[in-house]
Amino acid sequence: MAKRVYELWKGNNIFLCGGRLIFGPDAKSLFVTVSLIVVPVIIFCIFVARHLIHHFPSYNAGYAVLVVAIAFTIYVLILLFLTSARDPGIVPRNSHPPEEEFSYDNSSHTPGLQFPRTKEVTVNGMQVKVKYCDTCMLYRPPRCSHCSICNNCVERFDHHCPWVGQCIGQRNYRFFFMFVSSSTLLCIYVFAMSALHIKFLMDDDYPTVWKAMKHSPAAVALMIYCFVSLWFVGGLTGFHLYLISTNQTTYENFRYRSDSRPNYYNQGCINNFVEVFCTEVKPSRNNFKAFVKEEQQTRAPPVSFRQAPAEEDEPPCGPPRAKVEDDLEIGDDLLKISRRRDFEEVGDEELRSVISENVPGSNSDRV
Ligand SMILES: [Zn+2]
Ligand SMILES: [Zn+2]
């Protein structure tokens, strides 16, 4: 029976709902993250917001404190889901090395396949080196990196976030940033409302801060929790604001900071923000629900000795090719013949011998 792409997936991802949702291998940490958000908010609603309701009697405005907390939490959880459950920008693997990247070395007596580890592509008029990924068998597009946790090449790879259990890349960076910055606002909100609760207690029956705090330990605990969390999520928000304004990824920032490499992607602060927040999210390059065609696994490609110029950004991801090494060998020999200056003098004999040597049972008369 034909299998679906996600069932034969070579990365370490976890799929749910028949391949509709894709998580990283450490998606279980989501339970921790969700409880770190939801538990404090529940405590806030029960022990703080419930009392604040009565302090704003006009138009029942006090209920807004509760509604805002709940609505904002739901919003943060949706952003977390959007970051965590979608394809972060995985570049589909090739099942064979890209044929056109082999270079044919005629100088040596035993012509072997030379496989360049890097190649140069042009980005904004500048030459950028891109590396070949052995696992995915492709030249990584610029800014793409291989996540060792998920075992996938991810476009505009930022980092692998253990809290959301997913890579942060091209397709979920926006949601990740919105999640982190909204969490910061939620922290500030809960902190401020808890402080307000203490203030009202002091105004009413508890004249000193100490007495008021003793009366509502939940508010104190929330304020400490939010204060500590703020350093984390607030710091992360500030760091990513800096990264966005200079169009860097976390990976690039950590990797190339010491190299003082030029930043090829910086288009000015405003354009950098527009790029992250106002451009359309690229559609996924993977259709996890699609059936894997059987012919893709067995079909042999035609002999090709074309040395095509490499596609600049898009790594070749044509149909998988079987027996590619044999074919390349034939192609190599044929190429050598075709390259000889005295090509006219090469008789059918030589061509026939090449074919019959390499293809067992081939009918040389057909050449
Ligand atoms: Zn890779
Ligand atoms: Zn990852």
UniProtKB/TrEMBL annotation:
Residues 298-325, 344-367 are annotated as: Disordered. Keywords: Acyltransferase, Lipoprotein, Membrane, Palmitate, Transferase, Transmembrane, Transmembrane helix. The keyword Oxidoreductase does not apply. Residues 131-255 form the Palmitoyltransferase DHHC domain. Its EC number is 2.3.1.225. GO terms for biological process: protein targeting to membrane. PROSITE patterns: DHHC. It catalyses: L-cysteinyl-[protein] + hexadecanoyl-CoA = S-hexadecanoyl-L-cysteinyl-[protein] + CoA. GO terms for molecular function: protein-cysteine S-palmitoyltransferase activity. It is a multi-pass membrane protein. One of its GO terms (cellular component) is Golgi apparatus. It holds the Pfam family DHHC. It is found in: Endomembrane system. Residues 355-367 have a biased composition (Polar residues). It comes from the Eukaryota. PANTHER family: PALMITOYLTRANSFERASE APP, ZINC FINGER DHHC DOMAIN CONTAINING PROTEIN. Belongs to the DHHC palmitoyltransferase family. The DHHC domain is required for palmitoyltransferase activity. This is S-acyltransferase. It comes from Rhynchospora pubera.
